[in-house]
Amino acid sequence: MKLVIAVVQDKDSNRLSTALIQEGFRATKLASTGGFLRAGNTTFMIGIEDERVEDVLRVIRNNCKVRDQIVTPVSPMSGSTDSYMPFPVEVQVGGAAVWVLPVERFEHY
């Protein structure tokens, strides 16, 4: 058994959740926040049999797309703001960061 952890952008969350349900996968969704853009993310935790891991990864891959976005960086928390000149930059957002971990034991009560 494996635990698949997928951190996806909120814009992809509902589409992924719907696709997982349609494919018969059960997942736990957690609200999370990214570090760089301080933007909302959703973390999915999916317990799955070893032979179905590739199927889950396919669903995630098909529903979480990388896209370019123009953002203005958040001002620094410390130091002088006199020299800080925020300007929009283009960054890639979306997609999914996925970890597949072995599960030593699973219990359901």
Keywords:
109 residues; alpha+beta; 4-stranded antiparallel β-sheet; two-stranded antiparallel sheet
How would you describe this protein?
With 109 residues, the chain is α+β, with helices and mostly antiparallel strands. Helices cover 22% and strands 39% of the residues. It contains two helices and six strands. The chain has helices spanning 10-22, 53-63, and strands at 2-9, 28-33, 40-48, 66-71, 89-94, 96-102. Strands 2-3-1-6 form a four-stranded antiparallel β-sheet. The chain has a two-stranded antiparallel ribbon with strand order 4-5. The mean pLDDT is 85.
Question: Short summary of the structure?
Answer:
By secondary structure, the protein is of the alpha+beta class. The protein has helices at residues 10-22, 53-63; strands at 2-9, 28-33, 40-48, 66-71, 89-94, 96-102.
